[in-house]
Design goal:
By secondary structure, this protein is an alpha/beta fold. It has one domain: 3-Layer(aba) Sandwich (Rossmann fold), CATH 3.40.50. The chain is globular, with a radius of gyration of 17 Å. The relative contact order is 0.16.
């Protein structure tokens, strides 16, 4: 069964691409067939870190978005879509006008929306908008990114948190990776595998182990939500 994973959150700077990178590495390390569509034309992060697995996408027109579905139809695999900020209206237009949810159901393709959030009020409102758009027709994973917030009490106490439970949404926590270490990884355009295993670049042994522990903990959360 193919699965399309739309990794978004609508806001910029909440860590969408970090989650997509983590999912890509998780698929590699667990021998899961997958492809990536980098729909962020301004900051194509997946083209930098996982170029060998990544296709360019464009949500502005149907021709640019159709390959997302085609990849899922062509092979039994996970299709990871790294969404840019403020792309929901383009994605929704493509999905509604082309009956993508219906087509996915007909061909036994699961659709998952990953809502990566910080601890701000606007992330809660954007999650509500996502639920309002797709209701129970798709699956959801909510990622509380501790690298972009430390207090998610407002979310946990909100009506949208209750709605998430009613819709069967999975909720996971992504720990913060030490900022200077992440900065070095980004400067190297390194995959997380390379950050852990490559001894010739500028990450020291403690930094590499730090990344290893962070990835291991993140994998436990990914395995728990089982998306």
């Amino acid at each position: 069964m193919s699965r399309i994973h739309f990794v978004g959150g609508e806001k910029g700077g909440v860590g969408k691409s970090v989650v997509t990178r983590l999912l890509a590495q998780y698929c590699i390390d667990n021998a899961m067939p997958f492809s990536v569509v980098d729909a962020d034309r301004s900051h194509p992060a997946m083209m930098r870190y996982y170029a060998g697995y990544t296709n360019a996408g464009n949500l502005d027109d149907f021709e640019g978005a159709d390959p997302i579905m085609q990849l899922a139809l062509d092979a039994d695999q996970r299709v990871l879509v790294d969404l840019p900020a403020q792309s929901d209206r383009f994605l929704q237009h493509w999905m509604v006008q082309n009956g993508i949810v219906e087509l996915a159901t007909e061909h036994n393709v699961q659709i998952w929306f990953w809502h990566v959030m910080d601890d701000g009020k606007d992330s809660i409102g954007l999650l509500q908008s996502l639920f309002d758009t797709y209701t129970s027709s798709v699956n959801y994973v909510i990622v509380k990114n501790m690298g972009r917030g430390v207090k998610f009490d407002a979310f946990e106490a909100s009506d949208v948190r209750q709605l998430a439970d009613e819709l069967g949404a999975k909720v996971m926590t992504l720990d913060e990776l030490h900022k200077p270490t992440m900065h070095k990884i980004d400067l190297l355009n390194a995959s997380f595998w390379s950050a852990i295993n490559n001894t010739t670049d500028c990450l020291g042994i403690i930094e590499r182990h730090r990344v290893k522990v962070w990835v291991r903990n993140a994998y436990k959360e990914l395995a728990r939500v089982n998306a």
